[in-house]
Specification:
Layout lengths: L10 E4 L2 E4 L1 H4 L4 H12 L2 H10 L3 E3 H8 L3 H13 L3 E6 L2 E6 L3 H13 L5 E3 L7 H9 L7 E3 L1
Antiparallel strand pairs: 1-2, 3-5, 4-5, 6-7
Amino acid sequence: MTSGDGGSDTLHSRGNFREYNIFIMANMSSIEQVAALLQTIGQESRLQILLAIGEGETCVCHLEAMLGLRQATLSQHLMTLREAGLLEARRQGRFIHYRLNDPRLLAILRQAAEVQGVSLAELSPSPDCDCPNCSKEKRQGDNGSRCEVRA
């Protein structure tokens, strides 16, 4: 988001995506902050990622299996969301797990869906994901996993 007076960019370009600059956020009005948040999460793939992560923790292989995005594309979206302060990452061996920094974001997404008169997909285990969490849940037969979208 560029200020109209030729000042600094709040969101500045970095490759094919935009980076949220937290240092400039302190100087933004509340309306500009909300607009910057909505611009960051407004891309369809990012909304799918946020919903897929949900209230739990999700590994990158979950997201790849569930959303069908190339790993490089997924990584760019995850980096944008992480740099915006919306996600935090945790490495476990060769797997990287993501979770929402603030679960209230899900409530915003659910309310937006409600306003539009649509429902959001639920998640179930993915047969295509081999991370430790999925493997354990598949062995236990747990359907509460955060692996695959179920309509």
